[in-house]
């Protein structure tokens, strides 16, 4: 057996070694393993077994698949099995086999469980190194969580390592600071660091209003930290390794070259320690092409001689377990009379395969799927590739900005973000300090005289009075910006008829816009000709006020029937999710006149997210127009 990393990793490698050991103990074969420290050592490990004339060699893990395949081609008399293989081969040697696991199925169950157990509404995923296998854990976990609770937040980080325990720990600590209360890892030994972080957080924050949990992987990792291990997504690598050796011993080795092991035949599952799995899962059935997990109703619901009013914590204390999780998920269905209720199929099933799109290797309900159309846009393709082009430290800072400031990293703002490295390379990142550098000098309050004058010139140079009959200010905040735009239009074109539609999703902001008043010392001189002196201070005159219509509205759900000659969205897009950024920009594109202009935040680059925008050169503003066909 050739292994990438240490054999005693408490996870994947160790599980494979247990299967090998069992075969040795039963004298089915003489067994050995070779640890490697990376691709440079793979070939020599396989060559050593070839010289020993081994009968069967395992390559454990997807990173060893290519070396396993190559060794099989060079040594046709030796059987080779790639554990966790993912690739498709046009020509498969007769001595080469791939053993793959339906980890997305058990991960679906883990996500379903985590979503119901979470008290903060935030659950986390720690991946090792991106690749098809780890993606299956990732997609399955999120799909199960969203199947249970569509609005659940799933925070994800990749460590780019399977062995760096310290990095796993730091990522775990970051997610806990972000309010994540349940973290699932698919990162081998690296994930043990995350488990340590969750355990320490549990011990040091006992006054917390919510508990924190970890979900292990590959092996049942309950013993690593019994007090915080919710369950583990178990991949029975040991059983596969042992079974194939036994088949070889009995001269009954499989004929098919792709060996699939899943939930249906109990090769992937949730761990039984902590009374989560075996006690509450009663079997698996297949119906109409879907796989259903059947819950053991008698075990899930309180027995008749117990008080219905018992809390989940009391039940756990009685059973000696802190993690009778599925009971907690479904205890609300216990009828007031204590009778076991009749359960609809929808309530009983955990549809671990129902949403799986085999052609795309993704769950339908995972939001990060690429759009099917994707004609003139790079959008989600770029967003997804972004995760692989930015370093791990940058990802951690980006996640912190998202959690603490609601700032979403995407191609729209990546260039600005990378220029801020000096703010976190020498000290602990402070999201408030970083985000302060993002805001445009013309964002919020009344724009300064030089920015106001430049805006007037832009309107004169690029737009006409006719185009400015309808203007949109998206995310108008307290209303200052809308009055700036209205004043600039009047300055540029005089007493024309125009309407500025100012939208914001903060009702308090909208309600106070008509009563805005300013002290003389805080108003730039450019606005004084459009203002009146009142008992409350300076206010815009009635002509300006009547030209602005404030609406309580969400920019992601705008009225698509209006057409605008100018759209202002300063420092708005970056505070929307990646998907919403794309959706809103598409709406802007469809609602903007072909000769109109879009002005966004100074540190936002619209044409890096959508290709159908062209930037106009300007020292003070980020201005875009629609590309002509």
Subunit arrangement of the protein: single chain
- Helix and strand content put the structural class at alpha/beta
Largest sheet: 7 strands, mixed
| Poorly predicted runs of 5 or more residues | 274-287, 289-389
| Beta-strand content estimate | 15-25%
Number of strands: 25
**What is the helical fraction, as a range of percent?**
25-40%
Within CATH, the superfamily of the largest domain carries the name Response regulator
> What is the terminal separation in angstroms?
59 Å
CATH class of the largest domain: Alpha Beta
The average pLDDT value, as a whole number, equals: 79
What name is given to the CATH topology of the largest domain?
Answer: Rossmann fold
Q: Number of helix segments?
A: 22
What does it look like?
The protein has 629 residues and is α/β, with parallel strands linked by helices. The protein folds into four domains: 2-101, Rossmann fold; 103-232 and 279-357, Rossmann fold (3-Layer(aba) Sandwich); 373-436, no CATH class; 449-626, 3-Layer(aba) Sandwich (Rossmann fold), CATH 3.40.50. Helices cover 35% and strands 20% of the residues. It contains 22 helices and 25 strands. The strands form six sheets. Strands 21-18-17-22-23-25-24 form a seven-stranded mixed beta sheet, with helices on both faces. Helix 4 packs parallel to helix 5.
């Amino acid at each position: 057996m050739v292994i990438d990393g240490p054999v005693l990793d408490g996870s994947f490698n160790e599980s494979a070694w247990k299967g090998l050991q069992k075969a040795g103990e039963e004298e089915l074969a003489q067994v050995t393993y070779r640890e490697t420290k990376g691709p440079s050592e793979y070939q020599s490990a396989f060559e050593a077994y070839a010289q020993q004339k081994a009968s069967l060699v395992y390559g454990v893990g997807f990173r060893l698949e290519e070396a396993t395949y190559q060794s099989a081609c060079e040594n046709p008399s030796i059987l080779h099995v790639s554990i966790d293989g993912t690739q498709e081969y046009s020509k498969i040697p007769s001595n080469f086999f791939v053993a793959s696991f339906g980890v997305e199925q058990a991960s679906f169950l883990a996500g379903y469980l985590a979503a119901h157990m979470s008290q903060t509404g935030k659950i986390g995923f720690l991946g090792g190194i991106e690749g098809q296998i780890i993606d299956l854990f990732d997609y399955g976990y999120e799909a199960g969580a969203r199947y249970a609770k569509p609005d659940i937040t799933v925070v994800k980080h990749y460590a780019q390592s399977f062995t760096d325990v310290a990095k796993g720990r730091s990522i775990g600590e970051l997610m806990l600071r972000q309010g994540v209360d349940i973290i699932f890892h698919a990162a081998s030994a690296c994930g043990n660091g995350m488990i340590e972080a969750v355990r320490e957080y549990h011990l040091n924050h006992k006054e917390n209003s919510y508990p924190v949990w970890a979900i292990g992987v590959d092996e049942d990792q309950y013993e690593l930290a019994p007090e915080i291990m919710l369950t583990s997504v178990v991949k029975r690598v040991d059983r596969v390794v042992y079974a194939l050796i036994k088949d070889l011993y009995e001269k009954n080795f499989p004929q098919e070259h792709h060996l699939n092991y899943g939930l249906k035949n109990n090769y992937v599952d949730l761990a039984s320690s902590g009374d989560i799995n075996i006690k509450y899962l009663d079997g698996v059935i297949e119906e109409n092409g879907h796989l259903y997990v059947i819950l053991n109703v008698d075990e899930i619901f309180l027995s008749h001689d117990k008080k219905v009013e018992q809390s989940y914590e009391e039940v756990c204390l009685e059973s000696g377990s802190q993690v009778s999780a599925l009971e907690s998920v479904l205890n609300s269905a216990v009828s007031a009379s204590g009778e076991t209720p009749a359960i609809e199929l929808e309530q009983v099933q955990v549809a671990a395969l129902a949403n799986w799109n085999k052609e795309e290797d993704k769950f339908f309900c995972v939001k990060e799927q690429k759009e099917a159309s994707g004609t003139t846009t790079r959008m989600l393709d770029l967003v997804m590739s972004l995760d692989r082009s930015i370093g791990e430290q940058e990802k951690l800072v980006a996640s912190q900005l998202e959690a603490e400031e609601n700032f979403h990293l995407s191609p729209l703002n990546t260039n600005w973000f990378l220029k801020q490295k000096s703010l976190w390379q020498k000290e602990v990142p402070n999201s408030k300090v970083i985000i302060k550098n993002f805001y445009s000098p013309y964002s919020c309050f009344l724009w300064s005289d030089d920015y106001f004058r430049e805006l007037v010139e832009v309107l004169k140079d690029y737009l006409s009075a006719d185009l400015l009959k309808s203007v949109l200010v998206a995310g108008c905040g307290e209303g200052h910006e809308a009055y700036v735009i209205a004043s600039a239009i009047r300055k540029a074109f005089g007493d024309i008829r125009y309407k500025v539609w100012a939208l914001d999703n903060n009702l308090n902001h909208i309600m106070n816009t008509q009563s805005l008043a300013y002290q003389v010392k805080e108003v730039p001189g450019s606005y004084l000709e459009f203002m009146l002196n009142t008992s409350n201070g300076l206010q815009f005159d009635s002509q300006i006020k009547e030209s602005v219509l404030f609406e309580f509205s969400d920019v992601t759900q705008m009225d698509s029937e209006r057409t605008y000659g100018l759209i202002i969205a300063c420092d708005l897009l970056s505070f929307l999710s990646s998907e919403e950024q794309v959706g809103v920009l598409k709406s802007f594109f469809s609602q903007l006149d072909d000769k109109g202009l879009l002005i966004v935040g100074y540190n936002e680059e619209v044409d890096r997210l959508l290709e159908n925008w062209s930037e106009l050169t300007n020292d003070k503003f980020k201005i875009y127009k629609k590309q002509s066909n």
